[in-house]
TrEMBL record:
One of its GO terms (cellular component) is plasma membrane. Keywords: Cell membrane, G-protein coupled receptor, Membrane, Olfaction, Receptor, Sensory transduction, Transducer, Transmembrane, Transmembrane helix. InterPro entries: GPCR_Rhodpsn, GPCR_Rhodpsn_7TM, Olfact_rcpt. This is Olfactory receptor. It comes from Neovison vison. It is a multi-pass membrane protein.
Length: 313
């Protein structure tokens, strides 16, 4: 039994990505640029889709939600890191730490589930094209987006409630640039077995299961594409899926390494590198990945820019 007179830490010290002042200056400039690109890129995607009636389809509805989630995920972690570098203060209060963790898991779960939902949308579009409009009805699209929002809210809240019962009586230095669950559990001086079991269960539900569903969808998609008689038709079908597969590889390749690999092969450096990928790099790249090879979306973005230029002149 844990002693009753233990006192928990009132704040944590985020050690960040580097302790060298010269490197931190470079990191500040780099992450500031990345964050600006992330904000502008994802907001442009949302505005282009919402303002162009030709893009009011299930695929772009899901993409707009993914852009919103990517924007929020990056906003939850990157600005705090930039502020810490700028003011040379690496502390974060315990309530702020839990709040940041809540929204990180909330938007991280949403990201994972939405990527799987988009894979299902491509599966229906390619494997059942004649029934696509009937299957992907507005009601189903609403459920496929609204359901994950509710699910993410509940799961993230449980994470925080379990974390709130832990006591941190030793070192309060967190070898990370934001309050992530796994490094925090290592700092606790109370039993974290329930938290770790819940982490594995949630990782199975929101990382492993969607990833397996995506792989199964793309096996069916590839089989369907190979049956297309014309080379042009096959090329077009592969082109619509390639951007989504790039996002799948970026996101799941890093999250699986952090939350599903054995702790014996994980290090603080690897965890931070993976975290940079799915909190900063992936949200920044998604607008480029989805727009560069998408003629309709590029057209929507041109219309949006031309409309703004015309209205300002």
């Amino acid at each position: 039994m844990e002693p009753r007179n233990q006192t928990s830490a009132s704040e944590f010290i985020l050690l960040g990505l580097s302790e060298s002042p010269e490197q931190e200056t470079l990191l500040f400039a780099l992450f500031l640029c990345m964050y600006v690109v992330t904000v502008v890129g994802n907001l442009l995607i949302i505005l282009a889709i919402s303002s162009d009636s030709h893009l009011h389809t299930p695929m772009y509805f899901f993409l707009a939600n993914l852009s919103l989630v990517d924007f929020c995920l990056a906003t939850d972690t990157v600005p705090k890191m930039l502020v810490n570098i700028q003011i040379s203060s690496k502390s974060i209060s315990y309530p702020c730490c839990l709040t940041q963790m809540y929204f990180f898991h909330f938007f991280g779960i949403m990201d994972s589930v939405l990527i799987a939902v988009m894979a299902y949308d491509r599966f229906v579009a390619i494997c059942h094209p004649l029934h696509y409009t009937t299957i992907m009805s507005p009601r189903l699209c609403g459920l496929l987006v609204g359901g994950p929002w509710m699910f993410s809210c509940v799961i993230s809240l449980i994470h925080i409630l379990l974390m709130a019962h832990l006591v941190f009586c030793g070192s309060n230095e967190l070898p990370h640039f934001f309050c992530d669950l796994t490094p925090l559990l290592r700092l606790s001086c109370t039993d974290t077995s329930v938290n770790k079991i819940f982490v594995l269960i949630v990782a199975g539900m929101v990382i492993a299961t969607p990833f397996i569903c995506i792989l199964a969808s793309y096996v069916r998609i590839i089989v369907a594409i190979m049956k297309v008689p014309s080379a042009g038709g096959r090329k077009k079908a592969f082109s619509t899926c390639s951007s989504h597969l790039s996002v799948v590889a970026l996101f799941y390749g890093t999250t699986i390494g952090v939350y599903l690999c054995p702790s014996s092969v994980r290090t603080a450096v690897k965890e931070k590198a993976s975290a940079v990928m799915y909190t900063a790099v992936t949200p920044m790249l998604n607008p480029f990945i989805y727009s560069l090879r998408n003629r309709d979306l590029k057209g929507g973005l041109r219309k949006l820019v031309n409309r703004k230029v015309t209205s300002s002149s």
